[in-house]
Amino acid sequence: MDSKFSKDEMIKLYINLVRTRTLDQVMVGGLLAGKIGGHWTSQFGEEAVGVGASTFLRNDDYILYCHRGHGITTLIPKGLSPKAFIAEHYGRAAGGCHGMALFREFEADLGIVGLSGTLGGNFVVAAGLGIGAKMRGKGQVVVCNEGDGTYGRGTFHECALMAANWKLPVIWGIENNQYMIYSHVSELYPKDNLADLAFGYGMPGIIVDGQDVAAVAEAYASAVERARAGEGPTLIECKTYRIEPHVFGMADLRGAKPRPQEEIDAWKKRDPIKLFQERLVKEGILTAADIERIGSEAKNEMEEAERFASESPPPEPETLQRALYAE
Amino acid sequence: MRDIAFWQAINEALMEEMARDETVFIMGECMRGALFGTSKGLVDKFGPERVLDTPISECAIGGAPVGAAIAGYRPIADLMFSDFFLISGDEICNKAAKWRFCHGGKPKLPIVYMSSTGGYVGSDAEHSQCNESLIMHTPGLKLVIPSTPYDAKGLLKTAVRDDNPVVFLYHKQLLGTKGNVPEEDYTIPFGMADIKREGTDVTVIATGYMVSMALKVANHVETMGVSVEVIDPRTLEPLDMDTIIASVRKTGRVIIVDEDTKRCGVTGEIAMQIIEQAFDSLDAPIKRIAAANYPIPASKALENIVMPQPNDIVAAIREVTGKDLGAPMEVEAPLDFRALTTGAAGVTKNG
Predict the structure, then answer these.
(1) Quick one: which H or E segment has residue B27?
(2) B 161-180 residues inside an 8 A Cβ radius of A
(3) Is B127 a catalytic residue?
(4) Each residue of B172-198: pLDDT tens digit?
(5) What ipTM describes this predicted complex?
């Protein structure tokens, strides 16, 4: 199969898939052990979307991420420390946001600029980052990934309009995992493809197989190229599926009834890591020994991060005032 | 020092700050046309890249500045009417106010949200509100309400230079009023109340358009032997309680005037802080004058019932001093703000 990516780039995509899934599993463990104060929304089976979107971005490109997995699939490839991520979830001082945020991360040097707690709040921030990126004129882009449910927000219309009018370097990504808590996407939108939303704004609307990390990465790469060239925004819909319930441990429904098991099983067969691993082995890019090594390195990295977080002290009360206003 | 109009003072501050710092830009609906005059001429001087006209999209106008600020710019967003802050409530009260806090104090968010505010305009409930209690209630925002052209220019310059989201509200009735404004650069620190008039018998605390109303009443009752001190906090967050408490200790009598709704309003907050800090100095119950607990009606006859009136303040002074203040004060009709603003924008009303 032809690919625009080198062998090393393909391996990088694979490693990021494995690292994010390993971190997801560590987070589930932290939740079950009572170490996470809030909730955990597993991204199991959707890793290819975020990994494909963010692995090849520049450090000074901005990224806003889908709340699912609290952003791990985009944040870890963008360079976020898993130590800071886990410590934040454990409410510790060493957390990326000093225990203020649970599911948010902010690392200016990595272009990680936070997450809106209200869904649809990322769109407006992305538009503003796009204004700044365009003013600065250094070819920076903004990737704003959101779930299918979030594209119901009016803020998307306002910001899609703004980005299209002013040719802002923004890539609107839809991680369409087909479920908004209990509601199926087919009941939320009149058409099958959310990418069709792009039509009214005169921007390209691309549909991509969200289980194929290389396809996702290619789609984002072409949108990034377009944005860097000053040609404006692109909408990318990644078709994927939410394997786990909305929040780990809660009921798993479609409407008021249990989600059909055969639907879940069918999508499990299209697991993004399994698919990509098979491809890389077939193409001679990875051996069984490589796969084993990558898996154990990821496990060591995430377990060490978990130990670090567990041993980290809670934040000091002074953190509150320091965080509220800048001096 | 020359006299210029309130809208011109705002305009000068914007001109000077945009010239001083090229990361400052302004966005909003019809900014280039300058509906209230405040952004007049900016596009000629700074170009369309720094004076952005948006569609009707208050959420984007309120939220995009957060992203632009993170990206290293100092955006000014004009919401046109303070009523429209509610459309952008998530963006201003959640995103701008909380983004820094939620992210561990890492980002600085130098944003100014400005808009017209206030009533006495016969323009109904959704173009007449004062929302200062909502803004003051929200941790993470600062709140500026100037009452004179001098304060407007100096406070707006401070707002643009502040590294936090600042809400700056200009009252429609004040836009055409004139006052002394220096031509040279000056700023006014936040959290520093201004004693607009010294007095010894009663302390009246007021902001924005209510300051001019309080001053007229103070002049009126002075002829009947009552000396009123008028204090303008100028910023409600941060709030200069020290100046207020010092005045209360001097007069022992307090009236708080605010144009926002009385229930859960600014007057209640300031009154309670006075009680907590200086109850022993009070010689009479604190009186509150604020809008009645209704939306603002359009009919002048009804609007006058709902909105604070000069004679409401006179009556409160009578109650706290026990003095006979004679017949009700004669009240001039408020200025027609449409005439002021069309004039300010340079769109002649006489053709």
Answers:
(1) strand B24-28
(2) 163-164
(3) yes
(4) 999 999 999 999 999 999 999 999 999
(5) 0.94
